[in-house]
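Lab notebook, bench 4. We co-purified these components, and the gel suggests they stay together. Before we commit to crystallization screens, I want a quick structural picture of the whole thing.
Request: model the full complex, all chains together.
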Amino acid sequence: MQHDDLLPRDTPVALIDEHGAAVADERYAMPDDDTLLRAYRGLVEGRRINDQAYALVRQGRLAVYPSSHGQEACQVGASLVLGEHDWLFPTYRDSVAVIGCGVSPADAMVLLKGDWHSGYDPAEHRVAPQATPLATQLLHAVGFAQAAKHRGEDTVVLALCGDGATSEGDFHEAMNFAAVFHVPVVFFVQNNEFAISVPLSRQTAAPSLAHKAIGYGMPGQRVDGNDVAAVLAVLGEAVERARSGGGPSLIEAHTYRMQAHTNADDDTRYRERDEVKAWVARDPLSRMRAHLLSRGLLDDAAEERLAAGAESIASALRDALNTDADLDPEDLFRFVTADRSTQLEEQWQLLRGEIERSSLTDAGGHR
Amino acid sequence: MTIAHDDINIDTNRHVVGTMTMAAALNRALADAIQEDPGVVVFGEDVGALGGVFRITDGLAERFGEDRCFDTPLAESGIIGTAVGMAMNGMRPVVEMQFDAFALPAFEQVVSHVAKLGNRTRGGVRMPIVIRIPFGGGIGGVEHHCDSSEAYYAHTPGLTVVAPSTPQDAYSLLRAAIASPDPVVFLEPKKLYWSKGEVDTSITADLGTARVVREGTDVTVLAYAAMVPVALEAAEIAASEGRSVQVIDVRSLSPFDDATVTAAVRGTGRAVVVAEAPGYVSVAGEIQARVFERCFEYLEAPVRRVTGFDTPFAPPKLEHWYLPDADRILDAIDSLHWDDEPAEGAAR
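Here is the predicted assembly.
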């Protein structure tokens, strides 16, 4: 591969402009109409899930929600490019991508609700547990792909992270391992401009995050992260290259986090409102909607159906989160190791005694 | 195989019985595990052509191919982090951390992921990973090559932590560690790599168990790894002075074998815990506390600890002052409120 082939473009790949008009591209083709409609449905549902989860935080039903409002095109694109045997390695901000891979919204929120550390079986949907430490899951993705390659399977692994994670040592080690062992991994960085409060300029001095790829000997590409058609095309190409033995690649999506990092964050302290407002015009939903309307692929009836579908998802999420799960305290001890040690059994018996005593007294404390 | 074994016999059950070094026993365990289970892969820094800086993986790449034993880029977090992904995808990685202190860049992967993924996923994902760490001093190694990091790992729920003291245990415990569905931090005492002993590969060992090494009736010395031979040396000297010392190889630092240790200390009524790691907030301190809690009514004297000092590990020319030796153990034994206290300053 020539060095030029490893370098990303100077401007991010876009297939639909901010007004909804198609942009011709010599390398990346516009996805077909069915795919565009599926993607739009994903955007509508993803936005509704984000907004619903945000409301549930305010109502105290979720402990915390790192919103991906504004980043839905990245999330939907990530979930739609994966094949039947492929795996997703998401972060805490990627709930919409996790849901796009088939995990129910309520199960995807178990971590954030506080019932347990992960609410789904990774093997069932081929989605790794959402990672909270930054960049650590990128190495897991590489190892997972190494095992698949070792067995001759054609699994591709899509590993997600944010711009802040690219400063971590594990990001570097993951890129380097993936390239050295030539494994089928696609690294997808959602550059949303801020790592909590710290801007991209304090994370890197590189021309772009995608430019880092050439240092590892893999191709890098930049994509407009608010253009779901472009995300699908660029990610799709990277996934197919990985599947056909072409090795890893690094895709950087340029997008923006429209809301605070989480409910605990005050984003007025580190960015101007005008900057946030400017990104409203680049919203991934309105752009795609304008495109579909202009091509006659969308009408009022279809929009109503999509909205109703999203509303029923939100309603089911509300119901699930307004229900308190019946939590079993023995679960604290049940999964630490495959076989419970004597020490843990003794501790469980201690807690069981406390529970039995507290059920006999109103106060539940010492008598 | 390029490891030189002395006096190896293959018996009718194809089990190896013979005298070998701990290094050879570990090598044999890795080879047998690779051969028996197609999911086992061995990787790390310099484990391929070189066979590891201590030659524990000698000949494995040559014999089984680079698919089964391979060198990685020089990156400890990368080694453990990719092992996590491999384990998620059905393999049994056995990784080598070249020296104890070199494992520290991977500490986040060990604590946040290796130890927790099974729990996070309610058992949906298991982590059958073995992390081999050459540990401890006594070899004249320079800074960062001789640390004892066991307390960090033993303090982490979800990790099994074991340390063998004989070639037989090195073989049997490593086989058990590789077969375990849970992650095992396997601490290899560098000082004992070249010590020899009888190994029968048909003998199995259960993780989580201690081993009575020497019977005795007056006092129980609890030790592990490179301190076991030192404890045995102290026991020999004590025997010549008329005291019967029981020696227990704790060998499983987590989980801890309370049953064996409690029964032993109740039997003798006196105990000394020996470890070369700094004593403050240590595994030795944990053992001491557990013995106090479970044996208090049986004790004739406070349980004593003999450990390394609370200093960074000593430079090579000072390490003999740092490491516990038989004299330090004997002094501790002497302090255990005997009815027949020897005269002050008695010659030994």
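Residues 1-6 of chain B have pLDDT under 50 and may be disordered. Worth comparing against the SEC data before the next meeting. The two ends of chain B are 47 Å apart (CA to CA).
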